[in-house]
Amino acid sequence: MHLQRLFTRAMCLALCLLWATQAPVAQAETGAEPSILHSVNEVERGSLLLRNGQDRAFLSAPLLDTEVAINVTAMIARVTVRQTFRHVGLDPVNGVYVFPLPEGSAVDRLRMHIGERVIEGQIKPRAGARKIFEAARSAGRKATLVEQQRPNLFTTSVANIGPQESVTVEIEYQQTLAYEAGWFSLRFPLTVGVRYIPGTKKVTGFDGGGWSYNTNAVPDASSITPPVGAAGEGHNNPVTIDINLNPGMPLAGIESLYHPVITSEPGPQRYRVSLDDGPTAADRDFVLRFKPAAGHAPRAAFFRQELNGETYGLMMLIPPQADWSRNARPPRELVLVVDTSGSMHGTSITQARATLRFALARLSPSDTFNIIQFNSGTESFAPTALPASPAHLARAAAYIDALHADGGTEMAGALRTALDARSENERIRQVIFVTDGSVGNEAELFKIIDRRLGASRLFTVGIGSAPNSYFMSEAAHIGRGTFTYIGDVAEVQEKIAALVQKLEFPVLADIRVRGASADFASSPNPLPDLYVHEPLLVNLRLGDEQALEIDGLLAGKPWSTRVPITNGGQAAGLDVAWARARIAGLERSLARGANREEVTSAIIALGLKHHLITRHTSLVAVDVTPAPLRAAQARDSHVPNKMPAGWQMSAPAARLPQTATPLALHGLCSLFLGLGAWWARRRALRS
Prior knowledge:
The structure is a single chain. The protein is of the alpha+beta class. The chain folds into four domains: 2-22 and 663-686; 60-290 and 619-642, Sandwich (Immunoglobulin-like), CATH 2.60.40; 316-323 and 508-610, no CATH class; 328-504, von Willebrand factor, type A domain (Rossmann fold, 3-Layer(aba) Sandwich). The chain has an eight-stranded mixed β-sheet with strand order 8-7-12-5-4-16-19-18. Strands 23, 24, 25, 26, 27, 28 and 29 form a seven-stranded mixed β-sheet that branches. A six-stranded mixed β-sheet has the order 9-37-10-11-6-38. α7 links the parallel β28 (457-463) and β29. It is globular and about 75 Å long. The relative contact order is 0.17.
């Protein structure tokens, strides 16, 4: 009995250690005590509470209101995002907010509003910008720093927000619209999902204050894991969205896929769209699409811009016209890869099952298929691809029905299994990858795709209300496929039918765009394949070209055309679009072994020239008026994101990844195993 009591006490100690390891993020190194509340009843209504890791009291964090104004001209969207930080506590704080933007956004302007004063942000190399910001923060001055963590994930840091004070941060970015199957579309993400952070070793580096430590697999994990509030609870981070459309053509329809909107026409071929219910919770992506009226769909498009002696262009490549229904479709091997990790629990796994069922229903008897699921590990439906016979499809349907979401998001093994690295295949080999993309080790995964793609083509399907669109779109680009976003179960049939049609009829492969001058450059490079109903946008820097040469393989045979570029519409911001695309290409080259120092220098040069936030350049604004606060008086306070709509997983505990077992949990497991071994040894000796 004595040994049993000792064992029970040891287990209780282990549980206490587990509780301790899940304490929230450590407080800032310097500064006075923040506003501490020992009961939720002590805080003002509508405030956000963060738990203090030392005495388990509550801290009052800044509230955040976001206003989004979007102006669309032709194919270019200019977006202004105003984030107002309101502090309702008793002591000054430094507000930190990690927020998403579209993966192709080019952020080029920052303004900080303090009362009537407006401070313009300046572009600086990242390390220099942070040094300026930290010096201002330590001196008690107000300052704002906007940094890129991923091409679709940014951080706004605001120093020294006083009690009962508001500071507004205004950023601007530019985005090129997507065009597919007759619809232009505009997407604005509103929240950051919980990302899986692999890695078994804690590493040092800049501490971004997130719920995860930096790990050997994700060295910046603390900067991409902001706190996340449970759905329907706490501060709503309300957002308003207003859009002015000037498409230059009459429209046949305007649709908001996931939010009710009000639409009006203030003038000829001008439209205004706003949220119907006013400020709304930022818990799912906003997607607006609009369709040109009959006879006004673009057949081809070219825009140009003259700026500081340089010429930039934007060209839309339209798939060649052909009656593909008359062509015999060659047999193919279809590999369906599905994410069954914990973040897919709820509506996401329902959408994923529906996607797989519909894709299998379009197979012909001459096709083969396989299914791969992944969470903390990888499992294949069959050792090799099976013929699409009724018996095999019936077994696959039962397998799909049994899929459930749980565990981590170990995506690397699934990619290695799905991509066979063969340069030639007897069949057309197509991989459909269904996931919410909630991972932090994107760079590692891109290298796997680049090295193992071979003759396969990778098509990503983003599932859920807030997928990681950067991973989805970049993986598809490297995989020479396309990215499809499904935000609702009702969309599965329409969108997967369109995807399957692309799979059946690829149009143009191995595309090259060539110009005659030494100044000519195009992005992206290399270009992805061109598929039916989905034009390809190419950003250009031009010299004295009068025309461009385009060639590729059409149905496996050489094809070429000459496109005059002496005309075309005038558009602003094409220099920024080209620079953003060029930076993406430089980042992409790292997966193929490019020199990191040379790539970093080139990105910094482009960022400084075009005033762009990149991985290596940031925007910083500092108030030069005398500081009203004592130096180092304010504490850091993170503004949580909303849990994406439909997610049923719990918010992660501070400083431990939600769906991973590394770090502290490994130590805890070792403790339990050690105690178990000790107990078994004692029992054996007594017997």
